[in-house]
Amino acid sequence: ASNKKLLILPGDGIGPEVMREVRRVIDWMGRRRAVSFDIDEGIVGGASIDAQGTPITDETVAKAKAADAVLFGSVGGPKWDSLPFEQRPELGILRLRKDLGLFANLRPALVMDPLVEASSLKADIVRGVDIMVVRESTGGVYFGEPRGVETLPDGKRRGFDTDVYHEDEIARVARVAFDLARKRRNKVTSVEKANVMQSGRLWRAVVGEIQKAEYPDVQLENMYADNCAMQLCSRPKQFDVILGSNLFGDVLSDLAAALTGSLGMLPSATLGAVDPTTGKRHALYEPIHGSAPDIAGKGIANPLAQILSFAMLLRWSFGMEEDAVLLESAVGKVLAGGLRTADIMQQGMARVGTSVMGEAVVREL
Amino acid sequence: ASNKKLLILPGDGIGPEVMREVRRVIDWMGRRRAVSFDIDEGIVGGASIDAQGTPITDETVAKAKAADAVLFGSVGGPKWDSLPFEQRPELGILRLRKDLGLFANLRPALVMDPLVEASSLKADIVRGVDIMVVRESTGGVYFGEPRGVETLPDGKRRGFDTDVYHEDEIARVARVAFDLARKRRNKVTSVEKANVMQSGRLWRAVVGEIQKAEYPDVQLENMYADNCAMQLCSRPKQFDVILGSNLFGDVLSDLAAALTGSLGMLPSATLGAVDPTTGKRHALYEPIHGSAPDIAGKGIANPLAQILSFAMLLRWSFGMEEDAVLLESAVGKVLAGGLRTADIMQQGMARVGTSVMGEAVVREL
Ligand SMILES: CC(C)[C@H](C(=O)O)[C@@H](O)C(=O)O
Ligand SMILES: CC(C)[C@H](C(=O)O)[C@@H](O)C(=O)O
Known about the structure:
2 copies of one chain form a homodimer. Chain A is an alpha/beta fold. Chain A folds into 2 domains: 1-104 and 265-365, 3-Layer(aba) Sandwich (Isopropylmalate Dehydrogenase), CATH 3.40.718.10; 120-260, 3-Layer(aba) Sandwich (Isopropylmalate Dehydrogenase). Chain A has helices at residues 15-33, 46-52, 58-66, 90-99, 123-126, 167-182, 198-214, 225-234, 246-260, 304-316, 321-336, 354-364; strands spanning 5-11, 38-41, 69-74, 104-110, 130-136, 148-151, 157-166, 187-192, 219-224, 241-244, 267-274, 281-287, 339-340, 350-351. In chain A, a hairpin with a 6-residue loop joins strand 11 (267-274) and strand 12 (281-287). The two termini of chain A are 18 Å apart. The interface between A and B is large, with 63 and 63 residues. Strand 7 of chain A pairs antiparallel with strand 7 of chain B, so a sheet runs across the interface. One 3-isopropylmalic acid (IPM) sits between chains B (90, 93-94, 250) and A (195-196, 226). Chains A, B: One of its GO terms (molecular function) is NAD binding.
């Protein structure tokens, strides 16, 4: 049994179809392990714009705040591309991050052995890659003010954004990175452009101070963002934990994900601060992949990233380590058994669709 | 003969040693092709800090303005890492870009056939890759005001930068990209984060307007920066010209360079506006690779990027197409002959140092 409150937000594109496979897993858990959750489901992104005129309603944000964890699909698609800036589907996820204070976005890039060949990189370059990108996710240029597009007296336009960090914002996400490194290979690579950006200069200083004062046992390396992109591509195994701002974390985590060659496999978590009285923290789990409008509705999307996001949720928000391991090893067995969705298809394997993949995971459970 | 004015700025790290090999080429041109230049040499970056207390003097900037072209090495190194922000070696190149109005930084990422195996990516993914990144280089977050690190009343620090673009800045660099695309494979991928940044939203709008009004024959694709990083890693052949802001262009051009696996081979050019009366434009040429302090002084650096930067200079600033082709094909022959510096070494090839490589190029000329 479990009275944990779970909010499910499938979103747009392939979101609903991959989320269906998680539902299958949840049903199995209810039947076989007698675990049940207090589940609510909501709409977000383009789906919410269509039905409610806004990418996310206050009511949905309130539900997310009340939940023990949020399982998120993905948002966006060409249908909503021409909407004004203030009405984009992306605001659904951006508002959740901001309003729930989800400042630490954890994006693992893991190369699973059976999928080494799915990478565009050579096998010996990527075999064994296991990187955790920790991206700051409630600050920086994503939310900094002032921002806008203004028309100057001569009729010409000027667009501007502010990339800004307070030292406390840097310190708390740095601690998340150092804590994770301690449970991994004890190394943090902190990424910025301290050679050209003032916020980057502060970033480097604060991360260095936190390491010195609180994590002298963890190795800290500072790297410029351009060099990090280069190194990820040429020697990815050098990295353990990569720490970056909202913007650099966005680009570099996508790159790290891409080099595994199995984007459709990668989950992520976004965590808030631990409440000192309840010991709880807000958390949202979502696949790294987006809404993939080009393949939505075709039944060919890979549901494993969404399923593995749910496994992360079980482990980190619900304290159900055993069930998380069970689910992750079921996914491992399905892959070892040769089933592949189109995105990770290789010669000699059996190509299957979304629901066959989901069923196979349940069968292995 | 030629009375073209050339300013040579070797800079720091491996800069001086790779520049020496260009001098060898210039000497050969004087002896064999009776071409001579009006050459001046200056110091910049850490070398200038050490000798003159500033990363670049006004006098050197004035010389650069007076020159028909600048051949630049690279700046920076651990020796100067702890200097205050206002005194970094990087300011040498940043000030040259800004003061000479060098707004279009052209960074080709070309996979040469004999070097396909040097890439960390699989041969079939990178064979034939030929990308030109056009990076805006006098605006954006590199120069935007306000910027700074301030101490708040409670003693805490806050660092901030402004990413800002005027529509004219976007338009002029977009035109450079579209013009280049017309001479290539007719496609421009314009990169931003229009889904989260206001300057990105203006960027996308203006690039679209220029394409519609002036380049309807060129294909324009808009792509988010995170997705572009991903696509560069997984399917680089889809790209022809990539257009981005100063910051996105910095990161994505380094990534594009890295995936070729032969960073030590890649030249770049940074161009100013054409003066309507003289028909001239300021231009600076430099290798993509940095000062590589770890290998500086060892005589093992690859001089080919610096030599190929000089070839670009001959072609674009001095109108010496024939000499440029001669030099580029000499480089091709040296590689075909099996010589390799350490960075591009492969089995079965002959490993050589900086000066042997430079001599070999002159021998092929
Ligand atoms: C959907 C969008 C706002 C988003 C971002 O840029 O953060 C996406 O790229 C991501 O990484 O989750
Ligand atoms: C040296 C430095 C200022 C620079 C930059 O960020 O522009 C470098 O990375 C480059 O790309 O030329």
